[in-house]
């Protein structure tokens, strides 16, 4: 390995060590620190003139500090006459769009952080309500039918115990920890109209709230700093590659995930790969295809609901027609907003969030697949829905386990039996918190090491997308 | 129809200066919302249309989480750009990373240049700053940079608050000699210089005074006070040389690290900083701190920029 220089940022030193170990070289000398006023200071300890430089920095920890550190490192290498500078970002920060759900008025819906978590109540999993009782039962199959009844009764009781879904916004105490959520938390109540007014300018009635995204900006900043090439893994949107004017190699964790499932999940051929939202369906389906097993999908949607009639009646979408063995459509309603509020705010249009499981998971092992888990609301909610629908065991397969805020707490209290996560973001906290039995960390250093080797030597890296890795 | 009015934007922290500027211009700060996710990523929303407007983003960057402030600013600029603003002017009284402006050793980053490139990349059309550490930083930009001076405000402060007939202007290092000499000329005062040998960043070594300060009120003038080690040491040197008292006037009071402790323990009578950097909470801890308000200069420059008038008047005169 001639002429190669690998620098590690301060975000993930152990991954840097591992990648360099795979390359058979040592990480190059670089001093990272801060001046007393908080500005980042770096000093590079080796010559990089006419070298092929790789800077490894994951978008974790204190994201902005680490990102600017990466930019300064790239820029320092570039101005020190490096022949090529490659940014290696196992987890690409700022790659996803925060989803802000809107009410009919244009105000974002509120998610309320909870203080304590229990298996049942958190994370406000949509509980199967009356609609589920209309599911087709199998008359010839006694035990399943009875378990079905048991299941619905228990879920009904839990419904009674927890009549309020988590998404309800009911009090004025919502803005106590705005940093806990990606969504600006504003109670949609009349007495808090000043709060609302600060978010939604009443004088600009025609102007719809709009949140700027940093995607292109981050891409442009990397290019500006001098990056000639970017290597990353499981980008949240593959369109992100198009934001760059430089080549972006998006690696996949699928081969190692496939490998793990094949050798570590007993009777994986009977398991079901589940995507917790429609956006991840493609990713989950391709994993299911390569494993040759079946696939299910959890679909959340917001529907306009008719003002009259019972809430659930309009939501049973053809579930009754399904026959045994065919995919069930369990239509489960969870009120997106406090219903009283909705009535007070608008009488004609009501929105109800429905969560549907498309596919059969009864008595099966489920493998939830997601690329990124941050607040963990989606995945823990999905896990509970799967258990409610009769799944025996729920694995969660995650590429980037960011687990911000109290996500780890939520995950450890959730229905997820085992988490399989890559080390694109440091996972020692996860392992410590959840215990070694419930967490398995997949090592991605080999993939990154090999891709760096191949890119350095000008070889193809498409082989890394295939199995065997 | 396009009105092309001024829109003033500020991040959600350290809005003090921006609010003063807005008040002076008779405007209100535009309603904005910075959304931080728990990992620190920010996204930004503007509650009014900014299409075809003249945007001024006033950001005070002090010590502490500099990188967060920088990225927030970039996201804000980019948000305005993608929202079809006519012109985006970044008002950065204290330019971040201004001291990283040259390759002082092998492979050192020129972060000031990187900052300039990043601002331009984000979509900044114009930069207004104050007392750049090195005015050459203006050359790092491909967009116009207006480097305002705190000097007129400082002159006013000295005239109003210090018995300046017995005063002498001191430059704490050779690099600041030009700035100190200019101020001394304006006030028709004498001028002395302290020569120091700096070992490493944020550390000081021995100091030599050039000039006579006997029985004088010494006014140390510098562009930036960081840990204030230099200022404290300079005050000692001056008092050893029979100075009457020592006052420091600094443009950017970053005051990081042990600055408050250093000032409190030093022989400085007073440390006066302009309001380019927010340090209100530090003033409570340190009675020796005083502030020169520069919001008038910034407000006037914004007004002139918007109307396409000359800025150079502000280089010599301090608006009320």
TrEMBL record, chain A:
One of its GO terms (cellular component) is ribose phosphate diphosphokinase complex. Residues 145-158 have a biased composition (Low complexity). Residues 159-176 have a biased composition (Basic and acidic residues). InterPro entries: PRib_PP_synth_CS, Pribosyltran_N, PRTase-like, PRTase_dom, Rib-P_diPkinase. GO terms for biological process: 5-phosphoribose 1-diphosphate biosynthetic process; purine nucleotide biosynthetic process; ribonucleoside monophosphate biosynthetic process. Residues 4-98 form the Ribose-phosphate pyrophosphokinase N-terminal domain. Pfam families: Pribosyl_synth (PF14572), Pribosyltran_N (PF13793). It comes from the Eukaryota. Keywords: ATP-binding, Kinase, Magnesium, Metal-binding, Nucleotide biosynthesis, Nucleotide-binding, Transferase. The keyword S-adenosyl-L-methionine does not apply. It catalyses: D-ribose 5-phosphate + ATP = 5-phospho-alpha-D-ribose 1-diphosphate + AMP + H(+). The keyword Cell division does not apply. Residues 120-190 are annotated as: Disordered. SUPFAM superfamilies: PRTase-like. GO terms for molecular function: ATP binding; kinase activity; magnesium ion binding; ribose phosphate diphosphokinase activity. 5-phosphoribose 1-diphosphate synthase involved in nucleotide, histidine, and tryptophan biosynthesis. Active in heteromultimeric complexes with other 5-phosphoribose 1-diphosphate synthases (PRS2, PRS3, PRS4 and PRS5). PANTHER family: RIBOSE-PHOSPHATE DIPHOSPHOKINASE FAMILY MEMBER, RIBOSE-PHOSPHATE PYROPHOSPHOKINASE 5. Belongs to the ribose-phosphate pyrophosphokinase family. This is ribose-phosphate diphosphokinase.
Automatic annotation (TrEMBL), chain B:
Residues 6-123 form the Ribose-phosphate pyrophosphokinase N-terminal domain. The keyword Kinase applies. It is an enzyme of class 2 (transferase). GO terms for cellular component: cytoplasm; ribose phosphate diphosphokinase complex. It holds the Pfam family Pribosyltran_N. It catalyses: D-ribose 5-phosphate + ATP = 5-phospho-alpha-D-ribose 1-diphosphate + AMP + H(+). The keyword Protein biosynthesis does not apply. 5-phosphoribose 1-diphosphate synthase involved in nucleotide, histidine, and tryptophan biosynthesis. Active in heteromultimeric complexes with other 5-phosphoribose 1-diphosphate synthases (PRS2, PRS3, PRS4 and PRS5). This is ribose-phosphate diphosphokinase.
């Amino acid at each position: 390995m001639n002429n190669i220089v690998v620098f590690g940022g301060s975000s993930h030193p152990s991954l840097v060590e591992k990648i360099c170990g795979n390359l058979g070289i040592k990480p190059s000398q670089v001093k990272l620190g801060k001046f007393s006023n908080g500005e980042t200071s770096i000093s590079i300890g080796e010559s990089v003139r006419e070298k092929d430089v790789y800077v490894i920095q994951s978008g974790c920890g204190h994201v902005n500090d680490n990102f600017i550190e990466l930019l300064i490192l790239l820029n320092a290498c570039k101005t020190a006459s490096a022949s090529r500078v490659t940014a290696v970002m196992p987890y690409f920060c700022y790659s996803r769009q925060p989803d802000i759900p809107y009410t009919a008025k244009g105000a974002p819906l509120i998610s309320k952080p909870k203080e304590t978590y229990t298996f049942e109540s958190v994370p406000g999993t949509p509980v199967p309500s009356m609609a589920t009782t209309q599911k087709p039962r199998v008359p010839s199959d006694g035990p399943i039918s009875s378990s079905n009844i048991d299941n619905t009764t228990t879920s009904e009781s839990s419904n009674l115990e927890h009549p309020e879904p988590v998404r309800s916004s009911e009090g004025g105490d919502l803005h106590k920890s705005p940093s806990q959520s990606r969504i600006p938390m504003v109670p949609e109540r009349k007495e808090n109209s000043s709060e609302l007014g600060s978010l939604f300018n009443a004088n600009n009635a025609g102007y719809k709230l709009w949140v700027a995204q940093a995607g292109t900006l981050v891409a442009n900043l990397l290019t500006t700093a001098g990056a000639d090439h970017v290597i990353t893994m499981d980008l949240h949107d593959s369109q992100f590659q198009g934001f760059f004017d430089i080549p972006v190699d998006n690696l996949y964790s699928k081969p190692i995930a496939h490998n793990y499932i094949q050798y570590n999940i007993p009777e994986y051929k009977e398991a079901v790969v589940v995507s917790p939202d429609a956006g991840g369906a493609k990713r989950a389906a391709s994993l299911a295809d390569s494993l040759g097993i079946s696939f299910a999908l959890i679909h959340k949607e917001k529907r306009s609901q008719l003002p009259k009639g019972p809430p659930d009646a309009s939501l049973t979408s053809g579930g009754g027609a399904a026959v045994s063995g065919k995919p069930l459509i369990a239509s489960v309603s969870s009120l997106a907003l406090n219903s009283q509020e909705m009535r007070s705010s608008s009488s004609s249009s009501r929105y109800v969030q429905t969560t549907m499981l498309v596919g059969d998971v009864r008595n099966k092992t489920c493998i939830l697949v997601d690329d990124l888990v941050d607040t963990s609301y989606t995945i823990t909610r999905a896990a509970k829905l799967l258990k409610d629908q009769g799944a025996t065991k729920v694995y969660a397969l995650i590429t980037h386990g960011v687990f911000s805020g109290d996500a780890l707490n939520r995950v450890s209290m959730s229905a997820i039996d085992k988490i399989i996560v890559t080390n694109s973001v440091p996972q020692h906290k996860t392992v410590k918190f959840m215990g070694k039995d419930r967490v398995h960390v997949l090592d991605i250093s080999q993939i990154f090491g090999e891709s760096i080797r191949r890119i350095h030597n000008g070889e193809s890296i498409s082989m890394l997308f295939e199995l065997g890795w | 129809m396009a009105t092309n009015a001024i829109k003033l934007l500020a991040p959600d922290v350290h809005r003090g200066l921006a609010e003063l500027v807005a008040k002076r211009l008779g405007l209100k700060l535009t309603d904005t919302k910075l959304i931080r996710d728990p990992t620190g990523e920010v996204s930004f929303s503007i509650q009014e249309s900014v299409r075809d407007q003249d945007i001024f983003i006033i950001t005070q960057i002090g010590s502490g989480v500099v990188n967060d402030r920088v990225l927030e600013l970039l996201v804000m600029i980019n948000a305005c750009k993608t929202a079809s603003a006519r012109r985006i002017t970044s008002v950065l009284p204290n330019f971040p990373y201004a001291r990283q402006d040259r390759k002082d050793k092998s492979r050192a980053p020129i972060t000031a240049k990187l900052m300039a490139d990043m601002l331009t990349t984000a979509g900044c059309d114009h930069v207004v700053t104050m007392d750049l550490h090195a005015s050459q930083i203006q050359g790092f930009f491909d967009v116009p940079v207006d480097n305002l001076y705190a000097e007129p405000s400082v002159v006013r402060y000295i005239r109003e608050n210090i018995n300046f007939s017995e005063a002498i202007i001191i430059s704490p290092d050779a690099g600041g000699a030009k700035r100190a000499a200019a101020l001394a000329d304006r006030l028709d005062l004498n001028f002395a210089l302290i020569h120091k040998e700096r070992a490493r960043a944020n550390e000081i070594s021995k100091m030599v005074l050039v000039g006579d300060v006997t029985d004088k009120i010494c006014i140390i003038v510098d562009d930036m006070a960081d840990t204030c080690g230099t200022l404290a040491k300079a005050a000692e040197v001056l008092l050893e040389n029979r100075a009457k008292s020592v006052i420091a006037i600094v443009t950017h009071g970053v005051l990081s690290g042990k600055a408050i402790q250093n000032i409190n323990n030093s022989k400085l009578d007073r440390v006066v900083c302009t309001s380019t950097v927010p340090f209100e909470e530090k003033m409570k801890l340190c009675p020796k701190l005083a502030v020169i308000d520069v919001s008038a200069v910034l407000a006037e420059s914004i007004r002139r920029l918007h109307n396409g008038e000359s800025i150079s008047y502000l280089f010599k005169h301090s608006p009320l």
